[in-house]
């Protein structure tokens, strides 16, 4: 019996357990996915990771508020180190290793919708954890990254860490979107509310627009993008593919994508 799980606080809202357990059933894998909710302090987190390793837990996903602290505790791979956050821990080696599948999840979600990233101009709205992961992932795929954030200094600081990237405030979105090929909302704006961080008039039909928000699946940003003739990618695709990347790393098996997607969307 393999045990995988999610480390975060809170985790009661997570859709990862049904998505992963549907995959285990489809793969006929003796495994369970459970949630762990330790107190939010560094010492407790270190004990939790040591305990998971000692108990033979095979892998953990990591969510808010632990991604940055876990990055400093485990042996993080180069991408996770550059992002500064770990969302997947693998216990199969001599030492726990840390990885960031948020970046890969965003890239796979876009590629699944036939979005070309090599040579594209990609605008990322938001410079927080999700924005960092997505911006690094896009740059690694050969995109020219433009970061825009409510606090312009945060966008500029992130852009300084990514070769060729630029940063600025939200007021410059209409200008930068004129020549953009890809737009990703990496903020929480629109989560369970009818709001958008992007003016509708700035959108156009040559864009591919992805919203990391998945509640609701059809955000105001995606409705506006569809009305402008843009390709749209809802946030559940990124959530799906980050989970797929974790599962494939842990098990060495090809994930049953359709099964996991059905399990995820049936709960949204």
Give me a quick take on this structure.
The chain has 268 residues and is α/β, with parallel strands linked by helices.
Structure description:
The protein is α/β, with parallel strands linked by helices. The chain has eleven helices and twelve strands. A six-stranded mixed β-sheet has the order 2-1-3-5-6-4, with helices on both faces. Strand 5 (88-90) and strand 6 form a beta hairpin. The protein starts with a strand and ends with a helix. The mean pLDDT is 97.
Secondary-structure element string: EHEHEHEHEEHEHEHEHEEHEHH
Structure classification: alpha/beta
Kindly state the number of beta strands. Answer: 12
Number of helices: 11
Ends apart, CA distance between termini? 29 Å
Give the secondary structure arrangement, pairings included.
Layout: E1 2-7, H1 16-27, E2 31-36, H2 42-54, E3 59-62, H3 67-73, E4 75-76, H4 78-83, E5 88-90, E6 97-99, H5 101-112, E7 121-125, H6 129-140, E8 144-149, H7 152-160, E9 166-169, H8 173-177, E10 182-185, E11 208-211, H9 220-227, E12 231-233, H10 235-251, H11 257-265
Parallel strand pairs: 1-2, 1-3, 4-6, 7-8, 7-10, 8-9, 10-11, 11-12
Antiparallel strand pairs: 3-5, 5-6
Which short descriptors sum up this protein?
globular, 12 strands, six-stranded mixed β-sheet, alpha/beta, six-stranded parallel β-sheet, 11 helices, 268 residues
